């Protein structure tokens, strides 16, 4: 019996080893090393690193560019929540409860853009929104309007960058939310029909609370994944410009590390992002019952 | 509910479908027009004169086949790597009990919440130290540090009846045989769809290629496409659209073939 136990232990180790090794080398150690780098002044190449204590962290909140980037990040989060969470949630409710049958085709169609590269999305939107020759500008010209040069305005650029990720993420989040809605027991909804309770009240008082856990999951995914998704269009279209106007914390981290070669600043920004994401993870595990306890 | 109201909702949903898909349709159609034609008849879906000139120009400017092969090879490496590591760990989690399981699971779940910025500098340094810059392996390795596969495979294994796996244990079937001959055949649809999702995501990957691939001959499709987009407005759109069309073809084909499996896997990933 003891021998068998030993064998099982060995087996588990063998099965887990590849994943654990990769996560250790390319995730755990890098996180620790980034944390270490955040206390130093270094340019990625020089043989020596200068210890600067908490200076890199202080700079995040005192430097005007960093503050601008943090503010932009908040703006990104608000827009991402509206476009990539509330909008698909609304549409998922419509599809589940207001149109009778025919859910399948919408699921299949809405999901299509999520299989395409964000670089393709960036190209498409910079074509559609091209202020001189783009289709939208031409249509607007016909009715006497002109499309502003949005790449010159940080705020407008952020809106369009969020629209690009919305094009990609909408269907994905829609499918997740629709699945959650579909799991709500049908007899519960049918009962409200007999009692003639208005539909919007049923949604508000029964459907939304019952779908809370998957909705929260998608909400947090929208922030965590969304902030990483906008990196691509920022990098392809604006490079964070005009004057950091469309940059966010992740792009600014990349810029600091690989363009300005300030790994200390970059690492401090990265650690801040990581802490924010960990708080979100904690919120998810706290409020989404059962999700993390399945195998634990 | 009144019929008219239902039709109004359908109208809205169809409008939404058009907004999501029309740009792609215009992209494909404009890639078969000359630069002039695309200016004058931008919104004409069927080109009046179909031309391959954009594709020919592309072929002259970049090594199209090399770039397609790079993308394919990198995506294949990532897909195989993630399937193998994911299957093995999910199996260990599902059918073995061991000390530290709870903690390991927590660590696996949290990897989804690690922003790429917090690992990009050390990973870049490691990849350059082991001389894998500008190689498919160099781009693939950091992408493997992702535990979503384990979650997806676990939810697939949840559907296997417990009675079956109990029988395997009673009959003392060796673990590797149980995995290969019983579990894997049962969850084959999930393996295919999860593999398809991995492949598509990796095909479209932008961050790691940007960091690791500097030499033009090692570029993947999204990187090559980026060079055809300029924020100064000087983009030759039919040309960029031709390269975009090439970029979307493989994911689109995979989606059309495995669409039902893929949607099922995505759906079950959220339901836990």
TrEMBL record, chain A:
Pfam families: BPD_transp_1
Subcellular location: Cell membrane
SUPFAM superfamilies xref list: MalF N-terminal region-like, MetI-like
Topological relation to the membrane, as annotated: Multi-pass membrane protein
Coiled-coil regions, chain positions: none
GO cellular component: plasma membrane
Keywords in alphabetical order: Cell membrane, Membrane, Transmembrane, Transmembrane helix, Transport
Transmembrane segments: 12-36, 74-99, 108-129, 149-167, 258-283
Annotated InterPro entries: ABC_transporter_permease, MetI-like, MetI-like_sf
Example GO biological process: transmembrane transport
Annotated ABC transmembrane type-1 domain residues: 70-282
Chief place of localization: membrane
Record's keyword annotation contains Transmembrane: yes
Superkingdom field: Bacteria
Family, per entry: Belongs to the binding-protein-dependent transport system permease family.
Protein name: Sugar ABC transporter permease
Organism: Leuconostoc litchii
UniProt lineage: Bacteria, Bacillati, Bacillota, Bacilli, Lactobacillales
UniProtKB/TrEMBL annotation, chain B:
The UniProt record lists the keyword Ribonucleoprotein: no
A biological process from GO: transmembrane transport
One annotated Gene Ontology cellular component of this protein: plasma membrane
Keywords linked to the UniProt accession: Cell membrane, Membrane, Transmembrane, Transmembrane helix, Transport
Subcellular location(s) per record: Cell membrane
Entry's transmembrane regions: 67-91, 103-126, 132-154, 182-203, 237-258
Cited InterPro entries: MetI-like (IPR000515), MetI-like_sf (IPR035906)
Annotated ABC transmembrane type-1 domain residues: 68-258
Membrane-topology descriptor: Multi-pass membrane protein
Record keyword GTP-binding present: no
Family as reported in the entry's similarity comment: Belongs to the binding-protein-dependent transport system permease family.
Protein name, as recorded: Carbohydrate ABC transporter permease
Organism: Leuconostoc litchii
């Amino acid at each position: 019996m003891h021998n068998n136990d030993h064998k099982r232990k060995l087996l588990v180790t063998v099965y887990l080893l590849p994943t654990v090794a990769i996560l250790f080398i390319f995730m755990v150690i890098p996180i620790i090393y980034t944390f270490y780098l955040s206390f130093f002044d270094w340019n990625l190449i020089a043989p020596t690193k200068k210890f600067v204590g908490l200076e890199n962290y202080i700079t995040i909140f005192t430097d005007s560019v960093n503050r601008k980037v943090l503010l932009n990040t908040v703006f990104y989060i608000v827009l991402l929540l509206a476009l990539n969470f509330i909008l698909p949630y609304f549409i998922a409710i419509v599809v589940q409860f207001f149109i009778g049958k025919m859910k399948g085709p919408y699921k299949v169609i809405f999901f299509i853009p999520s299989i395409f590269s964000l670089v393709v999305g960036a190209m498409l939107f910079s074509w559609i929104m091209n202020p001189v020759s783009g289709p939208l500008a031409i249509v607007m010209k016909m009715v006497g309007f002109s499309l502003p040069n949005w790449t010159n305005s940080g705020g407008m650029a952020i809106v369009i960058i969020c629209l690009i990720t919305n094009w990609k993420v909408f269907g994905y989040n829609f499918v997740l939310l629709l699945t959650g809605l579909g799991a709500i027991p049908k007899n519960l909804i049918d009962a409200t029909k007999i009692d003639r309770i208005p539909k919007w009240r049923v949604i508000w008082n029964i459907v939304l609370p019952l779908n809370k856990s998957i909705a929260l999951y998608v909400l947090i995914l929208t922030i965590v994944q969304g902030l990483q998704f906008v990196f691509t269009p920022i990098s392809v279209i604006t490079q964070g410009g005009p004057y950091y106007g469309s940059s966010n914390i992740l792009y600014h981290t990349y810029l600091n590390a690989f363009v300005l070669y300030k790994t200390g600043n970059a690492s401090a920004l990265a650690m801040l992002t990581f802490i924010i994401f960990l708080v979100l993870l904690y919120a998810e595990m706290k409020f989404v019952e059962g999700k993390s306890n399945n195998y634990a | 509910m009144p019929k008219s109201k239902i039709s109004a909702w359908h109208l809205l949903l169809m409008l939404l479908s058009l907004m999501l898909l029309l740009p792609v349709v215009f992209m494909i159609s404009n890639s078969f027009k000359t630069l002039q034609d695309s200016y004058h008849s931008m919104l004409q879906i069927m080109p009046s004169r179909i031309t391959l000139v954009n594709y020919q120009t592309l072929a002259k400017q970049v090594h199209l086949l090399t770039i397609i092969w790079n993308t394919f090879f990198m995506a294949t490496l990532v897909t195989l790597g993630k399937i193998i590591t994911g299957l093995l760990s999910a199996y260990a989690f599902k059918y073995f009990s061991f000390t530290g399981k709870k903690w390991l699971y927590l660590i696996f779940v949290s990897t989804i919440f690690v922003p790429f910025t917090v690992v990009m500098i050390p990973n870049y340094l490691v990849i350059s130290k082991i001389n894998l810059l500008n190689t498919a392996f160099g781009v693939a390795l950091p992408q493997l540090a992702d535990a979503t596969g384990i979650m997806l495979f676990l939810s697939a294994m949840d559907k296997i009846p417990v009675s079956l796996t109990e029988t395997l244990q009673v009959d003392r079937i060796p673990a590797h045989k149980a995995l290969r001959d019983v579990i894997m055949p049962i969850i084959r649809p999930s393996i295919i769809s999860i593999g398809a999702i991995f492949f598509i995501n990796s095909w479209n990957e932008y961050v790691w290629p940007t960091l690791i691939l500097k030499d033009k001959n090692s570029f993947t499709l999204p990187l090559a496409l980026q060079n055809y987009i300029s924020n100064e407005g000087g983009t030759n759109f039919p040309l960029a659209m031709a390269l975009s069309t090439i970029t979307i073809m493989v994911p689109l084909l995979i989606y059309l073939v495995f669409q039902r499996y893929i949607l099922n896997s995505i759906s079950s990933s959220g339901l836990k």
